[in-house]
Design goal:
The complex is a heterodimer of chains A (165) and B (498).
Chain A (H helix, E strand, L loop, with lengths): L1 E6 L2 E7 L4 E4 L2 E9 L5 E6 L2 E10 L2 E6 L2 E9 H15 L4 E4 L4 E6 L6 E2 L4 E7 L2 E6 L4 E6 L6 E2 L4 E5 L1
Antiparallel strand pairs in A: 1-2, 1-8, 2-3, 3-4, 4-5, 5-6, 6-7, 7-8, 9-16, 10-12, 10-15, 11-14, 12-13, 14-16
Chain B lengths: L3 E4 L3 H13 L3 E6 L7 H5 L2 E4 L12 H11 L3 E3 L9 H9 L3 E2 L4 H8 L1 H10 L14 H11 L3 E5 L9 E3 L5 H16 L4 E5 L4 E10 L5 E13 L2 E7 L6 H17 L4 E10 L4 E7 L6 H8 L3 H9 L16 E8 L1 E2 L5 E2 L2 E2 L2 E3 L6 E5 L6 E2 L6 E9 L2 H14 L1 E3 L5 H7 L3 H4 L7 H5 L8 H23 L11 H9 L4
Helix pairs in contact in B: 4-5, 6-9
The chains are: A mainly beta (165), B alpha+beta (498).
């Protein structure tokens, strides 16, 4: 599984593989990661270097304390990265806002009807993809012009789901 | 000697005093507020009595209730610790009237030093240098005139003051009348006494204080100095003994001045003379603290003298068992005040339950603490939760040892000042001894991040935790009727939300 960890403007491409291997920006490492107290204290052995960390999480943001240093890390996986990208590109459009599926999946729900007024960033379609429920939101306020999918539909990446004007 | 001691305090200092009593074979009595029922000092003492609700005014500051308990429990003496009633001469008198020994100075000495203007006069008469300023209570017009003689910038301070209350910094003459008015009203509301005085601003300066021990027969010794310049908004964060700023000659001069100041006040028991030391190595009497100090362990570590036991012996009427020449400090000691404050969030108070605790130990480490797993840190009392002290043969060794001990100390459940201390002990200015009382506020910041290596470790840890969460999420059955997102649902199931 691939993740992107961002600290300030620095990014780490991290791939977590089988057999305790983690590849960081193309460099493989051997890791052994354990929770110590079942809550915030973790031990990481990486290539036999021993690290102890205290971690607080808030959404996708991790506050990691190591030796008195605080590192605030944002983590995106493939799914959250695509979701974020989709919202960004849809936001850039003017006129009609076309809501497309950011990845292949199964429509779990449509929360609006044609003609409904919608607020900016209102959740309108639930798309199950990569075994998670993802809420797709309107890029801006408007009214629902067209709905092209219904619950239970399988959709392809880039398929138009809904149009707001 | 009395046989039973009541400790009129809570938290680490109550435990500290109870330990001394136990080692002296004295029976012990604790008092506690309703929220402190489970506190360590309550369980540590042989007897414990509830004295009221959580707010200190209704419990730890209730003189009447504490005296009642002492009588009921037949305690021969009361030790006030520090804070709460420790410098309250009414309390000292109430003890005397009830026939109970107050472990501290005589009420009149406490009062003489508690009035900062009177204290300035008293010690100045003995030839001890005092910060230039005013020495008598003055009316506003006389004080404004005196301001020009003192020179600016200066401080307006409350005669009954302490802890920065009723204190105003004044840059220019035209600000003085307003500052006097505000300081007076603040002093009136905080201490019930609007008397103020002027004191010239000494800056840059180090805060150097001398520990005093005096018996009831007029014998006074000092136990050397403590360096307390590492302060955040007038609150000490780190103390050490000795100070890198003193040599033997200056130490001897300041020590003699401290002893003279204590003698002038007719002082008995443990006390502290605070000085400011300017960049030209001139020292000035600042004030006397008529109690045990938070930072007393650093003096104990270098002198080998148990100050709390000495307090109890002196209070029972025994003479000092040594003279000045017998006090031979050795090595270097340091203390970090660990507070329940979020160092990476503007030192905001942090409250909550201690869910897990890993305390430092090993050679040369002393931890003064009343924490335990399950303890609830509340907003009712001081944020100080423990004091981590170390001893080393020299300053460099003490610093390395403190860094080692800090890295071992893990308090989970609340945010603490530990990351601040870790950063401070990496600062080249601190390590080099290049600091004064303005250092923390003006030349030290808690910046995020640090080494590239640790940053990468943080990134990997965060990715591993995200991965872990995703793997867990896959095992949760798909949603049925709920339209909530998978993330949120998972949060609710696992209680991940903060």
């Amino acid at each position: 599984m691939r993740y992107t960890a961002t600290i300030n403007d620095k990014t780490y491409e991290i791939e977590i593989g089988a057999n305790n291997t983690v590849t960081v920006n193309g460099e493989p490492h051997n890791v052994d990661f354990r929770t110590i107290d079942g809550s915030r204290l973790y031990s990481l052995l990486m290539d036999n270097l021993s690290w102890e960390t205290l971690v607080d999480r808030n959404g996708d943001e991790y506050r990691v304390l190591i030796g008195g240093e605080l590192h605030v890390v944002n983590v995106q996986d493939e799914r959250t990265r695509k979701m974020a990208k989709a919202e960004k590109t849809q936001l850039a459009q003017t006129g009609e806002a076309v809501i497309k599926a950011p990845m292949p999946g199964l429509v779990r729900g449509v929360n609006v009807n044609v003609g409904d007024a919608v607020a900016a960033r209102q959740g309108i379609v639930i798309l199950e993809a990569m075994k998670m429920e993802n809420e797709l939101r309107t890029p801006r306020a408007g009214s629902v012009k067209e709905i092209r999918v219904k619950p239970g539909d399988k959709v392809e990446q880039g398929q138009v789901l809904l149009i707001v004007r | 000697m009395f046989k039973k001691v009541l400790v009129a305090n809570r938290s680490e200092i109550a435990v500290r005093v109870l330990r001394a009593c136990r080692e002296l074979g004295l029976a012990t009595v604790a008092v506690y507020s309703e929220v402190d029922r489970n506190a360590l000092h309550v369980r540590y003492a042989e007897e414990a009595y509830c004295i009221g609700p959580a707010p200190a005014r209704e419990s730890y500051l209730r003189i009447d209730r504490i005296i009642d308990v002492a009588i009921r429990a037949k305690a021969g003496a009361i030790h006030p610790g520090y804070g709460f009633l420790a410098e309250n001469d009414h309390f000292a008198r109430a003890c005397a009237e009830a026939g109970i020994i107050f472990v501290g100075p005589p009420a009149q000495a406490m009062r003489a030093m508690g009035d900062k203007i009177a204290a300035r006069r008293t010690v100045a008469k003995q030839g001890v240098p005092v910060i230039p300023g005013t020495y008598e209570p003055l009316r506003d017009d006389a004080m404004i005139a005196a301001g020009n003689q003192v020179g600016f910038p200066l401080f307006v301070k409350a005669a009954a003051g302490g802890g920065g209350k009723g204190m105003r910094r004044v840059e220019t003459a035209d600000e003085l009348p307003g500052a006097i008015a505000r300081a007076r009203s603040e002093a009136e509301s905080s201490f019930g006494d609007s008397t103020v005085y002027l004191e010239k601003l000494i800056s840059p300066a180090r805060h150097i204080e001398f520990q005093i021990l005096a018996d009831a027969r007029g014998n006074v010794v000092h136990l050397g100095e403590r360096e307390c310049s590492i302060q955040r908004r007038h609150q000490k964060m780190v103390e050490e003994s000795p100070s890198i700023a003193l040599d033997d000659k200056l130490r001897e001069r300041m020590g003699k001045a401290a002893v003279a100041a204590a003698k002038a006040a007719g002082y008995a028991n443990a006390g502290t003379i605070e000085f400011l030391l300017d960049k030209d190595r001139n020292f000035y009497f600042l004030e006397m603290n008529t109690r045990l100090q938070v930072e007393h362990p650093v003096t104990e570590l270098v002198t080998g003298i148990d100050i709390v036991k000495e307090q109890l012996r002196i209070a029972s009427g025994r003479p000092l068992s040594y003279q000045q020449k017998n006090v031979q400090p050795r090595g270097w000691a340091m203390e970090c005040r660990i507070t329940a404050e979020d160092a990476y969030n503007g030192f905001l108070p942090s409250t909550g339950k201690i869910i897990s605790l890993h305390e430092p130990t090993g050679p040369g480490v002393r931890l003064e603490s009343a924490l335990y797993e399950g303890f609830e840190v509340s907003l009712y009392y001081d944020p100080l939760i423990s004091k981590l002290c170390v001893w080393g043969p020299d300053r460099a060794a003490a610093i390395m040892r403190m860094k080692r001990a800090l890295s071992e100390y893990k308090i989970l459940g609340i945010a603490t000042s530990i990351p601040f201390h870790q950063k401070l002990f990496q600062s080249t200015n601190f390590i080099g001894g290049v600091f004064d009382t303005t250092f923390l506020d003006e030349r030290f910041t808690m910046e995020q991040g640090g080494s590239d290596e640790r940053e990468q470790v943080a990134a990997i840890v965060a990715a591993l935790l995200t991965h872990d969460r995703r793997q867990h999420a896959l095992n949760i059955p798909p949603p049925t009727s709920s339209t909530r997102g998978g993330w949120k649902r998972f949060g609710a199931v696992e209680g991940f939300g903060r």
